[in-house]
Structures are given as structure tokens and as C-alpha cells.
Amino acid sequence: MSPGISGPIVTALIVEPLTLIFKNPFMTARGSKTESRNLKITVRLSGGAAGAGEACSSLAWRENSASAMQNCLKQMEPQILEANPAQALTKIKSSWNEPWARPAALSALECAIFEAQANHLEIPLWRYFSQTLGRCIQRPGLLRTSLTLSAWPLPLLQRAARNSARQQFSTLKLKVTGEDPQEDLTRLIAVHRAAPKARLIVDANQGFTRPGAYAFARAAQLLRLPVILFEQPVARQDLESMAWLTRHAGIPIVADESLCTVDDARALIKKRAARVLNVKISKCGLQGALEIIRLSRKANTDLMLGCMSESAQGLTPSVHLACGTDAFRYIDLDSHLLIKGPNKTRTHQTQGSRILICSTPT
Q1: What's the pLDDT tens digit per position in 72-91?
Q2: Residue among 182, 181, 179, 147 nearest 161 (CA)
Q3: Angle, CA of 151, 152 and 154, to the nearest 5°
């Protein structure tokens, strides 16, 4: 153990490839994919406690390739070994702007360290988050996630929407492209008819121009479609259009790709460029997510908790963050339902739209 360090220290960082296969092609305005090449990360502490994280690739952030993320973790390894968890997290935070840094990799490393520390303290991760924010949550609540429907052809889209209705999903997120607004509107109508009781979120992944987004939003309202949110309608850097649409579109605007850092959150709040901020741990890290929660509470801004292409295990930090902070009005943690594989872990499980923390880890 290094001089001056008390408590557990990081003794090992293990990185393993993890390829996830989608049940159906994942299609958005940014492209499509049939698999996600992720990395499984394990951090071990002296004394035996360990924690896990998952770094995932993304259509929106193509720089997060498996090889680039591996290189990022290789750069971080000598910096965190023999550091205690607090020191390791500080080193990660100071590395965010390095040219080799990859947010998904740094975020996964943070997740692994947070979980290892919670395991060392022998408390559930959700309670650790609750204590970190000074909350007094006695037991984790029930989460209800939305379900994403990709920009699929109509027959597949309608089947998926009907199936979601049978599983009692109350909120569906539809991916649109903005390339053909009339086709997007047709698909939105089809989803509503197939699942008439569901609330709808439209996710454009930056696909529209300002006029196109406004026209689409107005058309959805004229048709009385139950659209409750319009997510990232325009390019991530175009905060002027985001703010204009927030004022005029008639549907609450969500910032997703526009929100990657704490500074992004400050800018969005200052410019009033969104009614809802979509926090994704893979973009901003756990330390960033906790700070954005603090900012949003001061600004009275609603939060969504979203995901990338994580497995059920990879969603563990997000599930526990939601349950331990009670900070998120909207939950969009459904990536494990879109890929082939288990939909439960040792600490949480999914039943339809419901995500529950296990009272006793299995």
C-alpha cells in the first residue's frame, strides 16, 4: 500500500470484450446496427470487494469504438492502481479532456469503482447513491421504463407496438429520422393505433431542421396524438433552435445529444433550451450525473434517465442511481430488452415495463 493512503486501494483493473446482439436492427436517424461491441470492466479493491461497469459503443458517438475505449482504459490503469476509490475518481475526472479519453470508458470505470466501494462498505449501491446526495430514502422504489421502437418498416413497427401493449408498457419511444416527415408521421400514427393507451415520446436523434421539427410537432398535435416529449429534434450544438422549439413547439423538448457534460447542462438550463435533460451515464459519467442532479434541482428542470446499448448488468448503476436518488421523472432504461440475453441481474430484474431492485441479491 502506498504511504499516506488509508482504507482499500485499487489492486486490479480487468477489461473483457462483450458483444451484444440486437433482437431486431437498431435504427435511428444516425444509422443502424445489429450488434454492440462493448467492454466489461471489473475493478478489484484490496480486501476483496469488486465492482463492474460496461462501456458501450454508440451510433451517436462513433469515436467510442471498442479499440479506442480499450486504449483509454490502458491509459487510466497506472493512474488508478494503488489509489483509493476517492483518489481514483479524482484522477478519472481530471482525465476527461485528454485526447485519448472516451466518455463511455471513463464512465464505466467510474461505475466499477462506485460499486466496488459500496460492496466494500457492505451497502446496496442505491443506498450509497442516496447517502452521497444526502437523501433519506429507506427503500428503493419501483421504476417503470419506456420501450424504444426503432425506425423500422411499418409491419415490424406495428407488431412491436402491439406486443408492447400486451406487455403493458405505458410509454413508447419512437425513433424518427426527419428525412421524410410525412413517413415519420405515418409511423407515429401506426404506433398509436397499435398501442392506443400508450403515451409517446418522439426521438429524432438530431434528424430535423428547426422548421421541420416545428411542423412535425404541430402536425402531431393537430392529429391529437399522445406525444408527451420531443427528444433532440435538431443538431446537438444548435441550442438556439432547441430554445426556440422549447418556446414554440407545444411539446416539451428533451436534450439528449446536447447533454454530455455538466457544462452542457449549465448551458441548456441558462438558455432554457430544453424542458427535460436526458442523463446517460455513458455520456457524462456517474460523477457528472450526480452533479447534474444537483443542478436540475436548483433550476427545477425535469430529468430523464436514459441508456445506450448496455446489457442488463451494464444498466445496474443506472437502475440504482434512479432508485437511490428519486431524481428522474422519466425512465428510459430498456436497452437490455432490445438485445438477446437475460433481463435480470443479481440485484435487479425486469417484469414488462417494471424494473425492481431485489430485496435480497440473488
Answers
A1: 999 999 999 999 999 999 99
A2: 147
A3: 120
- CA 337 vs CA 119, 197, 353: distances in Å: 27, 20, 10
78 phi and psi, to 5 degrees? -65, -20
The kind and range of the H/E element at 320 are helix 316-325
Could you tell me the domains of the chain?
10-123 (3.30.390.10), 143-357 (3.20.20.120)
Q: What angle do CA 118, 90, 132 make, to 5 degrees?
A: 40
Up-side HSE of residue 323: CA atoms within 13 Å toward CB?
Answer: 28
Q: Are 54 and 68 in contact (CB under 8 A)?
A: no
Is residue 281 within 8 A of residue 260, CB to CB? The reply is no
Count, residues in the chain: 362
Query: How confident is residue 4, by pLDDT bands cut at 50, 70 and 90?
Result: very low
Residue 61 has pLDDT above 70, yes or no: yes
- Asked whether the beta carbons of 13 and 46 are under 8 A apart, the reply is no
* SS3 assignment, position 134: coil
Give 171-207 pLDDT, tens digit per residue.
Answer: 999 999 999 999 999 999 999 999 999 999 999 999 9
Helix axes 66-80, 103-121, angle to 10 degrees: 50
How many Å separate Cα 204 from the centre of its chain? 16
Least confident of 120-124, 137-141, 176-180, 277-281: 137-141
**Residue pair 206/235 in contact by the 8 Å Cβ criterion:** yes
Query: Quick check: 150 pLDDT over 90?
Result: yes
Please indicate, yes or no, whether the overall pTM of this predicted structure exceeds 0.85: yes
